[in-house]
Automatic annotation (TrEMBL):
PANTHER family: ECA1 GAMETOGENESIS FAMILY PROTEIN (DUF784)-RELATED (PTHR31207:SF40), ECA1 GAMETOGENESIS FAMILY PROTEIN (DUF784)-RELATED-RELATED (PTHR31207). This is Prolamin-like domain. Residues 1-25 form the signal peptide. Keywords: Signal. It holds the Pfam family Prolamin_like.
Length: 155
């Protein structure tokens, strides 16, 4: 009987502790940056031989049609490298994307923006942040589309 009581007390303490100290992985506060400094952000997006191999395998999972679609998305944005880094910094560090980047995102369209970011959050350096990706990517789209408005795909 004493073992049962001790086990119940231990279980209760563990449950209470888990509620009072949530981990970063399940924290629901989207306003807190996931990375603290710009140096950590720069180091995170650096490539390594291991990450290169992993990322090549991610790329191989896509069909030719999917790859062509993503390349076309990149072209529609006009500033894909700069904008991609800005979007990643917005998602991970809560830094806002520029107006030029927003213009490219809106020009490319929501589906294109969402798919492009889905691809990026599969790469080695970013996969640990994938739980934040969808809501933050959607938030960026909403903010940019409100700021920029509707853009003709031919403008």
């Amino acid at each position: 009987v004493e073992k049962k009581t001790i086990f119940m007390i231990f279980s209760l303490i563990m449950v209470l502790l888990s509620f009072s100290h949530p981990t970063l992985a399940i924290e629901g506060d989207n306003d807190k940056p996931l990375l603290i400094s710009d140096d950590e952000f720069d180091a995170m997006i650096e490539m390594s031989p291991t990450s290169d191999d992993y990322n090549e395998n991610v790329g191989r999972k896509y069909s030719k049609k999917q790859n062509d679609y993503l390349k076309n998305c990149s072209k529609k944005m006009d500033v894909p490298n700069q904008c991609t880094v800005e979007v990643l910094a917005d998602i991970i560090q809560n830094k806002s994307v520029s107006r030029d980047c927003c213009r490219g995102i809106v020009r490319a369209g929501k589906e294109c923006h969402m798919e492009w970011m889905r691809l990026f959050f599969q790469i080695y350096q970013l996969k640990r942040f994938s739980s934040k990706q969808f809501s933050k990517t959607n938030e960026i789209w909403n903010r940019c589309s409100t700021e920029i408005g509707v853009i003709s795909p031919f403008s």
